[in-house]
Amino acid sequence: MNNNMIFEYELVCLIINFGQASKSLKIAKNNGINGGTILLARGTAKNTLLEFLGLNDIRREVVLMIANKDNTDKALKEIEKALNLKKPNHGIAFTIPVSNFLGCGDYDFSLKSEKRSENKNMFNSVFTIVDKGKGELVMEVATQAGATGGTIINARGSGIHETSKIFNMEIEPEKEIVLILSKISETEKIVTEIREKMEIDKPGNGIIFVQDVNKTYGLRDK
Fold first, then answer.
1. What's the CA angle centered on 143, arms 138 and 148, to 5 degrees?
2. What is the pLDDT of residue 164?
3. Which domain holds residue 25?
4. Distances from the Cα of 11 to the Cα of 170, 190, 222, angstroms
5. 92 with 143, same domain?
6. pLDDT for res 98
7. Do 13 and 112 fall within a single domain?
């Protein structure tokens, strides 16, 4: 490997219909991305007919991959075409800038102060981590603040405020990660509402963090 090469890294996040993750990873591998992680989730976008039929809680797969920007650009163009992301309800994809990473192929870690792409996107990704069962409430609050949908991912906690004991054994409660893509102009209102209504500032109630988004695929103005 040429150690003088400087890459701009990105985290790719695909939120797609159940059963499409393996196909996406195969396309990514063919375009230079060595691997990824698949998470199971459920979508929360509102659809009146699906709600009437009781089918609005749709299973999703979330695929996370990290690679240099040149490879992510090529892979996402192919994935967008293969999965028809331009059509409604076929899924979305977005990328987040990453400083650097370890543990994948021949990439070396070095902390660089790189100049990021000048191509500004109009979206943020908002992550909220709360106790299991509260994800829907987070989405309700976010929707009232202007969010058009989100994805809920199952997880588990390990923080100092998040364990209890049963028969002297520590239990790590299950968590839910709520992922929302919001327009930059609406992010502050959404985050503020979630923070206040969910009382995020109280220990153990959850956390919120916001990331810039480089590119998006499959998003349409509502």
1. 120
2. 58
3. 9-119
4. 33, 23, 26
5. no
6. 83
7. yes
